[in-house]
Specification:
The complex is a heterodimer of chains A (about 525) and B (about 450). Chain A contains 15 helices and 13 strands. Chain A is α/β, with parallel strands linked by helices and about 525 residues long. The longest helix of chain A has about 35 residues. Chain B has 2 domains: about 120 residues, Aspartate Aminotransferase, domain 1 (Alpha-Beta Complex), CATH 3.90.1150.10; about 260 residues, Aspartate Aminotransferase, domain 2, CATH 3.40.640.10. Classes of the chains: A alpha/beta (about 525), B alpha/beta (about 450).
Chain lengths: ~525, ~450
């Protein structure tokens, strides 16, 4: 998710009117401990690992010994613990509070799934052991595939993509391969992408060699059907559409969109980032989708880990299944088999290639399947319902003081523009930073790009009504304060975080990307 | 359902506040023919934590895990010891359940560790700068190739004979969309130096792995010189970063970009993922502008205190959209954290000792296997992995050894396809192997070779 205000790095106002605060001698402030960089606390002669002695041997390094100093600082174990625990305390996290990042789906991460991923039959298994010795892991991949196909109604799944964007690339490469097979790759170059789309969509289509044609939104925040009809033609390879879209709205005309694309000979790629709002309520197959990636780290709650790792399996319709990349899973009476090489491909399969080494994000597969099996068919539907209910509850509580971008109900996230801040001198960025002082992580801001000063709020299903009420009360108080002219509360914010606003312009203008000795 | 805080009374009250009569009113935009009535077909209902744990334990038990066997597999994924404190620290809520650090004031934990990671990777590879990581080594390699093509404004990419086959295939697949023309040299041992013969004025980059897929060490210095002479770049690939504690870094040998798999430090085998891709390069504006992925950078806050932010994002998809340097939208956050903590525990001393141990184990094992009739060690040089020629098919021998509780390496044909290098077995050893493991391997290999001969 893009968080920078329309891509422009910001510089803080250095005129320090508020906060200031009590300066300590140590630099620490109570429980918030000062912590220097590893290079400043560590030393080249410190080590936190003991080794057993090994056999003596004559070197076979072929004269390539590394003799110069490497420059890696070390720490003893107690020092390492303290260093990283102190650093951890400078992070906001779901386990600390509501994390309303729209389009990012920050929901509770069940710890059961961490335990499951560490079972030795998954965590301590080598990807290239004989397949006869990895049947349990392959069976798990098979079971995950079955659940993903059941939830979406699709025919096949490619498991290897390592993240959402990698999944997009997988799906679009399947479409590319299908067009090539039909002999139409040269004539179908154009991919339609709504303006509200996540930036990965156009970037992915471009990576696959397509040109991008943007679709505007209509007054209700959905694809403008009149423009779509004009733009569809025999040179269109397909459409990349997020549903529910990035405005948090279900694309009502989705079946008509699918029909139009299919009648014109193109394919329908659905960005599945928001599957968490509709699973168990509809199947993407019945919406006419040909390919869709599923962010296991969003919908199925594998932890975000401060920015990855994720996983982005892609479900495929019958029209695209045969193009799924290597490796892919099959089974027969002898058990599960991964087809890893072109030479082993059988039947109609025409894999478009290989996306990465090995078989995908096994650690995420285990966690996601653990999440799915815990919830079951009934629980997954309840997840969608509660996610949508929570978002609409916040929308209802906030709509009189803040300004919803579109009329009517939303899906799993509520989108506001900055009209309610007009004339207050407070920007979306200021409003977001003030939320930090109130103990909340800000919502997604300035995205989607189609809404001015956008604020996209996704509470997820794992918030209680009490938590939602506290959050809504805080936002309402902030909105009132902005309207009452308390500009300083916003322009100086945050004053209570470990750091004040950071100078992003300086970071970009003279990049310092690694530690350097003074 | 234990993960859902709302109860029926809450739901009713909330629907009333919203002003709708039923939950389905909120889903009214779904076209009626596509609505699901009732539960998803073919799936069971919710299950207790105990039940799920039981089911997964049963599945886990259906495989032979590395800890149950004498284990000698490598080929781009290595089994090293990870200190207990690493897993403890990465499971702290503040690291585990945080998002990408887009609000730097409340994400300094993630940002500072990323900055430490970038510093470590720069030191380790001998390069000037590193990014905040890629998905894994293979995708880092594919991105490095595209980056080189943009920097040089050329299309040619030559893959060395010793490049990991999955990496080669990943580069070739990622080139299908245009911009790069890949020439993969036929796989062979001892042939990496021949890559210079394929260089010409259209070459954007050569991609050379060290140690290569067969475990051989490759002197990159003459290759870098030859590439630079025609204006091409050298991309150095490393699968086993522990080797950098013993052998010359790619930076010392003239590499322009390094793409590496960082799994060996801090991260388990995990059946192939998640891993952590390292991408490092020269400190050159042109390189940085064309680099994929995220960078953490140092700056100050409004009161002049040092802090860290994600920076140089004008290369990225959320700003540049179809003109971005890559569609990548993440890094391998928690895996980089594990890498950073483990490497901080090791430090210079520990990494060197770890590398020394790995190499010593490999030397002893190579000598031991070389004494077996029907086994020939082919490497002149190696770090902790080497290739042996066996009498018969390596794939069959590996299956037979597995039945005796030995996971005895990777048959080359597993990656090159049947019919290629059928008699080559790639064997890796680490500090995890005991003398007993080596004895078990020795015995299993001998008996499997006899079984093969029968």
């Amino acid at each position: 998710m893009a968080m920078n205000p329309i891509g422009r790095p910001t510089s803080p106002n250095t005129d320090d009117g508020a906060g200031g605060g009590f300066e300590t001698f140590s630099g620490s402030q109570g429980l918030m401990q000062q912590e220097p960089l590893l290079n400043e606390v560590g030393a080249l002669d410190k080590c936190g690992v003991d080794f057993a002695s090994g056999p003596a041997a004559r070197s076979r390094l072929g004269g390539m010994e590394r003799t110069a100093q490497i420059g890696l600082p070390g720490l003893s174990e107690p020092e390492a613990l303290r260093h990283y625990v102190r650093l951890s305390q400078r992070n906001y996290a779901i386990d600390l509070g509501l994390y309303p990042l729209g389009s990012c789906t920050m929901k509770h991460n069940p710890r059961l799934n961490e335990k499951l991923a560490r079972l030795p039959g998954f965590g301590d298994l080598h990807p290239l052991q004989p397949q006869s010795t990895t049947q349990g892991a392959l069976a798990l991949m098979g079971e995950l595939s079955r659940w993903l196909c059941a939830i979406t109604g699709m025919d096949a799944v490619a498991l290897s993509p390592k993240a959402g964007a990698h999944g997009e690339w997988c799906g679009m490469m399947c479409i590319r391969a299908a067009l090539e097979d039909r002999g139409e790759l040269e004539t179908r170059r154009r991919v339609l992408v709504p303006e509200s789309a996540h930036g990965t969509n156009p970037a992915t289509a471009a990576d696959c060699g397509f040109t991008i044609d943007e679709l505007p939104a209509d007054a209700t925040g959905r694809v403008d059907m009149a423009v779509l009809r004009e733009k569809i033609g025999p040179d269109v390879a397909g459409i990349m559409l997020t549903n529910p879209n990035t405005c948090g709205l279900f694309e009502r005309d989705i079946r008509e969109i699918a029909d139009l694309i299919h009648e014109a000979g193109g394919y329908f790629y659905c960005d599945g980032a928001n599957l968490n709002a509709i699973m168990g309520k509809t199947r993407v197959r019945d919406l006419g989708v040909d390919a869709m990636h599923i962010n296991l780290h969003k919908t199925f709650s594998t932890p975000h880990g401060g920015g990855g790792p994720g996983a982005g399996p892609v479900v495929l319709s019958e029209r695209l299944s045969q193009y799924a990349p290597l490796p892919y899973l099959t089974s027969d009476e002898d058990g599960w088999k991964l087809i890893e090489n072109q030479e082993d491909v059988e039947g109609d399969a025409k894999p478009f290639g290989r996306m990465c080494a090995f078989h995908g994000q096994m650690g995420m597969f285990v966690r996601a399947l653990g999440y799915m099996m815990s919830h079951g068919a009934d629980g997954l539907r309840q997840v969608s319902e509660d996610a949508v209910l929570n978002a609409n509850y916040l929308l209802a509580r906030l709509q009189d003081e803040m300004s919803p971008a579109y009329e009517g109900v939303c899906m799993h996230e509520a989108l506001f523009d900055d009209v309610f801040l007009k004339g207050t001198g407070v920007t979306t960025l200021d409003f977001a930073k003030a939320m930090i002082d109130e103990g909340y992580h800000p919502m997604t801001m300035y995205f989607p790009l189609v809404v001015h000063g956008a604020m996209l709020i996704e509470p997820t299903e794992t918030e209680s009504i009490e938590s939602l009420d506290r959050f809504a009360d805080t936002l309402l108080s902030l909105a009132k304060a902005a309207k009452d002219g308390e500009v300083e509360r916003f322009s100086q914010a945050p004053v209570l975080a470990p750091l004040r606003r950071l100078d992003e312009t300086r970071a970009a203008r003279s990049p310092v990307l690694r530690w350097q000795s003074a | 359902m234990r993960y859902l805080p709302l109860n029926e009374e809450d739901r009713r009250a909330m629907l009333a506040r919203i002003g709708v009569s039923s939950i389905d009113d909120l889903f009214a935009d779904i076209p009626p023919p596509a609505r699901l009535d009732g539960d998803i077909e073919g799936l069971p209902n919710h299950a207790s934590e105990m039940q799920v744990e039981r089911d997964f334990a049963a599945l886990s038990g259906q495989s032979t895990n590395a800890g149950e066997a004498a284990f000698f597999c490598g080929g781009g994924a290595y089994r090293h010891h990870v200190p207990a404190s690493v897993d403890h620290l990465i499971q702290r809520s503040e690291f585990l359940t945080a998002y990408t650090p887009y609000q730097p004031e409340i994400a300094q934990g993630t940002l500072q560790t990323l900055f430490e990671f970038q510093s470590q990777v720069a030191h380790l590879t001998g390069m000037d700068i590193a990014n905040a990581s890629m998905y894994d080594g293979s995708t880092a390699c594919a991105e490095a190739v595209r980056m080189a093509a943009r920097i040089t404004k050329r299309k040619g990419c030559i893959l060395a004979p010793g490049l990991h086959p999955h990496y080669s295939q990943s580069v070739i697949t990622s080139s299908l969309g245009g911009g790069v023309q890949v020439q993969a040299m036929p796989a062979a041992m001892g042939a990496d130096a021949k890559i210079v013969d394929a260089l010409d004025e259209n070459t954007a980059c050569i991609v050379v792995q060290n140690p290569n897929f067969f475990g051989e060490l490759v002197d990159l210095t003459p290759l870098a010189e030859a590439a630079h002479k025609v204006g091409a770049l050298l991309i150095a690939v490393t699968n086993e970063v522990v080797s950098l504690g013993a052998i010359k870094s790619p930076g010392e040998m003239g590499a322009d970009i390094v793409a590496a798999e960082g799994q060996s430090i801090g991260n388990g085998l995990n059946f192939g993922g998640p891993y952590v891709g390292l991408l490092a390069c020269r400190d050159d504006r042109k390189f940085i502008r064309q680099a994929p992925g995220r960078f953490a950078g140092e700056t100050v806050d409004a009161q002049g205190k040092r802090g860290f932010v994600l920076t140089l994002s004008t290369r990225e998809q959320h700003i540049r959209r179809e003109k971005a340097t890559s569609n990548i939208c993440t890094n391998s956050g928690l895996c980089t954290l594990a890498f950073t903590i483990h490497l901080a525990l090791l430090g210079e001393l520990g990494l060197r000792e770890l590398a020394r141990l790995n190499h010593a184990r490999a030397c002893a094992l190579a000598d031991r296997l070389a004494a077996i009739p029907g086994v020939e060690v082919l490497n002149e040089s190696f770090f902790n992995e080497f290739t042996v020629r066996v009498r018969g098919k390596a794939a069959d021998i590996v299956e037979l050894m597995a039945q005796n509780g030995v996971l005895g390496g990777i048959p080359a044909s597993r990656l090159y396809g049947p019919g290629k290098f059928d008699d080559l077995l790639i064997v890796a050893t680490t500090e995890m192997n005991t003398d007993d493991d080596c004895a078990a391997f020795d015995a299993a290999l001998r008996s499997s070779l006899q079984g093969e001969a029968l």
